[in-house]
């Protein structure tokens, strides 16, 4: 008996009247992971398209693959470089020693394996804890488990430092899923990005372990600042002294969260999302224009006391989480503006805010996470004014 026949045989037990009907959400989740949903519209009007929720989420996950692969490599690279001075310990070191691979940062395999040993536990905990809450809410509400969690779980793991304790990972994804999404009705009804909500919760609840100089490389006794931290404290001229060049930041061989250091990896994902039309280009263009315009204005204004005024737009593009946030967070269709004009405004607002936070507010050298959440909050209001403006314009034209 084939797998399809097994699903067809047990399916009646999960429908209304069956002895397992309250667990239909779990059955539907497992079946959807294996097969494309077979449900079709039964009443007019019909909307025909090969793009369904499963395909959209699958495409986004595929787009993250370059960031995942480079994130594994860079996490291992930074860790192995630090181990040369501070030594290695723990179960990860025991596994690597047992396999005889070693901690040579010039060995790509050693870097990939070491990075995997940090990322994989974070991802497993995220899937397990977040998935439990997704299933609980789906069973209680009697609706299907949405594929949106696959994207949220992947993005959440990529915007965390490799040193994040697993219990904090569990807390963060719980907050993101429950408070950021499920309390508003689930996938498609949330006005905030769930992955960013979980990350923001950890950022404010445990700031020393999320934003300190010792969190980016998970080696005891090692400290090192990110490019943004160096720029904010010592100025742009100090970046080469810390071994950070623009090309290093563009490629991604610098300290930072697991999956958001490589601009080129994020741009590969963006190209895929634009070609498949999953991402709207207006959101991307608006965010770039807002960032470039305001950063250039601050360069012209200048400041004798704030070195961040001198950071040009092409550095803002490659440092911190700007590129990753631009590709995977700004373009997220649910929490972004839905009108074409609104998308330009929404993107420009985020681009403006990320530079504002990075440069003007000394407490938050990163900025992209808070800028996107700020944009999420204003997206419905932006769409409202755009729609009202269109109504007034048409009423005036037809008067």
TrEMBL record:
EC annotation from Swiss-Prot or TrEMBL: 7.2.1.1
Protein location: Cell membrane
InterPro entries: NqrB, NqrB/RnfD
Name of the protein in question: Na(+)-translocating NADH-quinone reductase subunit B
Family label: Belongs to the NqrB/RnfD family.
Cofactor section: FMN
Keywords, ordered alphabetically: Cell inner membrane, Cell membrane, Flavoprotein, FMN, Ion transport, Membrane, NAD, Phosphoprotein, Sodium, Sodium transport, Translocase, Transmembrane, Transmembrane helix, Transport, Ubiquinone
Modified residues (FMN phosphoryl threonine): 226
Residue ranges crossing the lipid bilayer per the database entry: 56-73, 116-137, 149-167, 249-274, 281-301, 313-331, 343-361, 367-387
Domain of life the protein comes from: Bacteria
Assigned GO CC terms: plasma membrane
Swiss-Prot/TrEMBL catalytic activity: a ubiquinone + n Na(+)(in) + NADH + H(+) = a ubiquinol + n Na(+)(out) + NAD(+)
Function of the molecule: NQR complex catalyzes the reduction of ubiquinone-1 to ubiquinol by two successive reactions, coupled with the transport of Na(+) ions from the cytoplasm to the periplasm. NqrA to NqrE are probably involved in the second step, the conversion of ubisemiquinone to ubiquinol.
GO BP field: respiratory electron transport chain; sodium ion transport; transmembrane transport
Coiled coil: none
């Amino acid at each position: 008996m084939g797998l399809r026949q097994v699903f067809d045989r047990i399916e009646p037990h999960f429908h209304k009247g069956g002895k397992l009907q309250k667990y239909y959400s779990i059955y539907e989740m497992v079946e959807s992971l294996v097969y494309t949903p077979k449900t079709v519209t039964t009443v007019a009007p019909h909307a025909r398209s090969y793009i369904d929720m499963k395909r959209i989420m699958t495409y986004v996950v595929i787009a993250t693959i370059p960031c995942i692969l480079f994130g594994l490599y860079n996490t291992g690279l930074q860790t192995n470089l630090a181990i040369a001075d501070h030594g290695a310990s723990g179960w990860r070191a025991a596994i690597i020693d047992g396999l005889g691979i070693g901690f040579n940062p010039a060995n790509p395999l050693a870097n990939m394996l070491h990075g995997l040993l940090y990322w994989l536990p974070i991802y497993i905990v995220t899937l397990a804890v977040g998935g439990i809450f997704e299933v609980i809410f789906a069973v209680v509400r009697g609706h299907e488990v949405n594929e949106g969690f696959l994207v949220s779980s992947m993005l959440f793991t990529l915007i965390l430092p490799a040193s994040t304790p697993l219990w904090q990972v569990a807390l963060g994804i719980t907050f993101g899923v429950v408070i950021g999404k499920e309390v508003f009705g689930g996938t498609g009804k949330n006005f905030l990005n769930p992955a960013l909500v979980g990350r923001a919760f950890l950022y404010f609840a445990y700031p020393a372990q999320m934003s300190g100089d010792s969190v980016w490389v998970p080696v005891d006794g090692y400290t090192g600042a990110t490019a943004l931290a160096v720029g904010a404290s010592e100025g742009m001229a100090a970046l080469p002294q810390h071994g950070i060049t623009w090309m290093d930041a563009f490629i991604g061989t610098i300290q930072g969260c697991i999956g958001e250091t490589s601009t080129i990896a994020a741009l590969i994902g963006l190209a895929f999302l634009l070609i498949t039309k999953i991402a709207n280009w207006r959101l991307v263009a608006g965010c770039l224009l807002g960032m470039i315009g305001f950063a250039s204005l601050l360069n012209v204004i200048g400041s004798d006391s704030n070195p961040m005024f001198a950071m040009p737009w092409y550095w803002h593009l490659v440092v911190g989480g700007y590129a990753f946030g631009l590709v995977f967070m700004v373009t997220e269709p649910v929490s972004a503006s839905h009108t074409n004009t609104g998308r330009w405004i929404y993107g420009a607002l985020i681009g403006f805010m990320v530079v504002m936070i990075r440069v003007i507010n000394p407490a938050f050298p990163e900025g992209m996470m808070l800028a996107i959440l700020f944009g999420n909050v204003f997206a419905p209001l932006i769409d409202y004014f755009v729609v009202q403006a269109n109504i007034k314009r048409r009423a005036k034209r037809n008067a």
